[in-house]
Amino acid sequence: VIGIFDSGVGGLCALKKVKELFVREDIVYFGDTGRVPYGPKSAETIKKYAYQDASFLATHGIDAMIVACGTVSSTALDGLKERFDIPIIGVIEGAARKAVSVSKNGKIAVIGTKATVSSGSFERAVKEQRKDVETYAVACPLFVPLVENGFVSEDDGITAAACEHYLRSVKEFGADTLILGCTHFPIISGAISSYLPGVELIDCAAEAAELLRERYSGKQGENGKVEYYVSDDPDAFCSLARTFLDSDVNERVRLIDIEKYS
Ligand code: DGL
After folding, report:
1. Which of 69, 140, 163, 204 is labelled catalytic?
2. Which ligand 1 atom is at minimum distance from the Cα of 36?
3. Which of these, 36, 50, 91, 174, has the minimum number of CB atoms within 10 Å of its CB?
4. Which atom of ligand 1 is nearest to the CA of 69?
5. 47, 71, 75: which to mutate for ligand 1, most atoms within 8 A of CB?
């Protein structure tokens, strides 16, 4: 069983790739829709939420976990690894590796939440892989509520305006590679690409799933069942998930009280 959590729907980008790579593995997904967004919150609060989210998943007997959230991966990954004795994969390492391998001009930009960008996590990881790259990072806090509220189509005017606002400096920097350092962002990759044509976009959630494949070989005897849990409004989660998961969320999305876990 693989556990995946995020503050909301963004982690479904990881789930999609995990389903491709681990066809028969059971998955438990938790989206903390009652407390999203995590990005503007303090490190202390993000850590508390992360431990609660992971503790909830641990009650399902998971064998491995993807922290499908750039914000939590930047703030609480080491703490989670200390607490839970299973393979735990965040979204930073795989994305940094991929970015370094595809960039030709050595200019790599990162976008993420405020907490992610101020932690410097992706930039540090990129430079650990290759010293002679130039990095630039910018926080795009409005992207998260845009995604959570369904403003996800490529030609959405509001999302296009937000792209222009946040990504102008990425264009000026001259990046040929952009790490989508928040798992909500691949959902609006169409709008991001329209503003930055020719720039290679790195999906940190998909790269985390690839990394998990390298570190966890999967469990025999499972049948690819997915369970979804959220901390608020299962119907809204379900209809949003439908807009970007190739398959419908047919399973019932269950509501839980995440504050019960610690
Ligand atoms: N999907 C999350 C991330 O990757 C968080 C968005 C948020 O809750 O602010 O950072």
Report:
1. 69
2. 8
3. 174
4. 4
5. 71
Q: Which structure tokens are listed for 55?
A: 């503790």
CA 128/CA 97 separation, integer angstroms: 9
For tokens 């479904």, name the residue: 12
Task: Give the contacts of 99 (CB within 8 A, at least 6 positions apart).
Answer: 108, 126, 177, 179, 202
Contact criterion met (CB below 8 Å) for 31 and 238: no
Cross-strand bridge partners of residue 253: 228
Tokens representing 144? 């998260």
- β-strands 64-67, 27-31: how paired? unpaired
Question: Is residue 92 a contact partner of residue 204, using CB atoms and an 8 Å limit?
Answer: yes
User: Quick check: 50 and 261 in contact, CB under 8 A?
Assistant: no
d(CA 152, CA 246): 15
Owner of token pair 């952009």: 178
* 262 residues of the chain, pLDDT tens digit each: 999 999 999 999 999 999 999 999 999 999 999 999 999 999 999 999 999 999 999 999 999 999 999 999 999 999 999 999 999 999 999 999 999 999 999 999 999 999 999 999 999 999 999 999 999 999 999 999 999 888 998 899 999 999 999 999 999 999 999 999 999 999 999 999 999 999 999 999 999 999 999 999 988 888 899 999 999 999 999 888 887 676 667 778 999 999 999 9
Q: CB-based burial of residue 250 (10 Å sphere; 0-12 exposed, 13-18 middle, 19+ buried)?
A: exposed
